[in-house]
Design goal:
The chain has three domains: about 1-105 and about 240-300, 3-Layer(bba) Sandwich (FAD/NAD(P)-binding domain), CATH 3.50.50; about 110-235, 3-Layer(bba) Sandwich (FAD/NAD(P)-binding domain); about 320-405, 2-Layer Sandwich (Enolase-like, domain 1), CATH 3.30.390.30. About 20% of the residues lie in helices and about 30% in strands. It is built from seven helices and 25 strands. A five-stranded parallel beta sheet has the order 3-2-1-7-18, with helices on one face. The structure holds flavin-adenine dinucleotide (FAD).
Length: about 400
Amino acid sequence: MTHLIIGAGAAAISAVRIILREKPDDRVVIVSQDEEVYSRCMLHRVISGERDAAGINFINDGVLNNKRVQWIKGKTVTRLDAGAKTVYAGDEALASGDRVLIATGANSVTPPIGELKTAKNAFGLRHITDSRSIAARAHDAKEVAIIGAGLVGLDAAYALLELGKKITIIEMAPTALAINLDARAAAAYQERFEAKGAVFHLGRKVVNTRGDGKGFITGVEMDNGVTVPCGMVVMAVGVRPATAFLEGGGVELTERKAVKVDDRLAATAPGIYAAGDAAGLSGIWPNAQKQGTLAAYNMTGTDWPYDDRFALKNTINFFGLPSLSLGAINPQEGDQVLIREDRNNYQKLILRAGAPAGIILQGEIGGSGFWQYLIKNKIRVDTLGKSPWKVSYADFYGVENNGEYKWAV
Ligand SMILES: Cc1cc2nc3c(=O)[nH]c(=O)nc-3n(C[C@H](O)[C@H](O)[C@H](O)COP(=O)(O)OP(=O)(O)OC[C@H]3O[C@@H](n4cnc5c(N)ncnc54)[C@H](O)[C@@H]3O)c2cc1C
């Protein structure tokens, strides 16, 4: 049997490993726009010049050198014939398979504002080609405007500060990292970026651009009428699943243009699966890998439901300050909030009906597996007669008859 995998990112590579292991006689054909395999989480290191593509390659087991793997690289799929399970680039049929995995990730969103869509010096940051374009343009741009203060925007800011650029970050939300952290934890990063010279405009929208008439943006105008001068713009306002090649074909998409999947990560056409950002269930690396793994099990005949829709896990590290957030970031009405902090640490626990609904750890971030389990399974910690901060594995473990430890809740 041949497994056709579209994409060569986190989800795809995880799937390849499982298929090769589970089905020793099967073949894998990968078709990808990328010509290299690399971690998108490390793209800022390519902008700053600290690493090249090989330096951010996340494969350490030579999986793509396996004789049963064929990798067709540098090809953008423009159509999937879901019935024939064949992918095309224009009129050229690239490859076919008995099973197909759509693992095409996502693309940066370009807001329809001013000349952002057409300017020669406005870039998203999603692919290694974006990092290279940003690094090349950085030679001629002293000032950079970054739209969006989420993880991707701050990655770009971090790299461009390393290159000595003057950075201005414009963000609609009232805080940086608004979907990852609460205001207190985000402020710790903002302060560190400001100490390196970055300027933040929070709660502000970009409404227009100024240009030089030759295709280059020279400034971005905010909704307060102020224009930020710049020689380059980095847009980091979100992503959209890379599924344009499926429009109008036999594979149904959700409203947000993700591949519609069931709990086996199967798409609506038989024999076709999706994993990672293309499936729209989450937008983070570890979940893409897990989905790739699970999809591959289902493609190779092991029935394995994807029940881990616990997507809200973030780890962040800038300037040596690590943070981790799990589940809810800000409380709802009726929640109890417990905070512990000292000079080096900030920890916030949100309890909902006595069970952890979210936690933020900044500084010391150990124990995430434990908290993740409690949050996912809504395990009450208010009935143990001790501070929730003192709760540990020992409070929940039982021992099986055979001596193995197990969760006793
Ligand atoms: C700058 C940046 C920083 C990030 N930081 C973090 C972080 O710190 N922590 C975290 O958990 N996550 C982070 N992420 C998110 C994480 O990288 C993604 O969730 C993850 O890469 C998704 O994996 P994927 O396999 O679904 O897609 P991708 O890794 O995007 O891979 C998609 C693959 O599909 C190929 N492809 C796309 N369209 C086509 C097509 N039409 N034809 C052929 N091939 C195609 C691409 O070339 C690529 O090989 C970051 C992302 C970016 C961009």
